[in-house]
Write a structure and sequence with these properties.
Structural class: alpha+beta
Strand order of the largest sheet: 1-2-4-3
Number of helices: 4
Oligomer: single chain
Largest sheet: 4 strands, antiparallel
Helix content: 55-70%
Radius of gyration: 41 Å
Number of strands: 4
């Protein structure tokens, strides 16, 4: 196949005069340059121009997004610092106790603290709950009275939780 193609091309080329060969050679070279220009160089040059034009607006968008991200971080930190108080804290702690599978005998607001009484509660479960409540509701244990029961790990307790003063 290659040999036939080469033979056909050689036959065609040999039949041309020197002037025709020269015209075909220079025409082919010009055609190759035109094709290279339209396929390779022109799209790359247009792409660079487009990027050069759009870069300043992209940089402005990046600066705006960075400023918004910083503002969101600041607002998030400020929102985490707001702890519920009073009845809202009582309701939040009651719901949290229920979520952790502990039934409070009594939950009441006393001053700025919320007093919780539990009977026959699991001490490990209670300590995990206190840690979660401390993180979630920004409270601290102001006072706790714990009485151990005969069953291992079971206690009766009364605890007062108040909004944390630590930042």
């Amino acid at each position: 196949m290659k040999a036939e193609l080469a033979q056909t091309w050689a036959g065609f080329w040999d039949q041309r005069t020197e002037r025709e060969k020269s015209i075909l050679t220079y025409g082919g070279a010009v055609l190759a340059v035109v094709i290279a220009w339209t396929v390779l160089w022109a799209p790359a040059q247009e792409g660079r121009a487009h990027l050069r034009e759009s870069l300043p607006s992209l940089q402005r968008q990046l600066a705006q997004m960075t400023a918004q991200a910083n503002e969101a971080r600041q607002l998030s930190a400020a929102a985490q610092g707001v702890a519920p108080t009073g009845a809202a804290l009582k309701d939040a702690l009651t719901a949290s106790l229920t979520d952790h599978g502990m039934a409070a005998v009594q939950v009441q607001v006393i001053g700025n603290a919320v007093q919780i009484q539990l009977k026959n509660a699991s001490f490990p479960t209670w300590t995990r709950w206190v840690d979660d409540a401390r993180k979630q509701f920004k409270v601290q244990v102001a006072e706790a009275h714990v009485t151990a029961l005969k069953d291992d790990g079971q206690v009766d307790l009364t605890a007062s939780l108040q909004p944390s003063t630590a930042k």
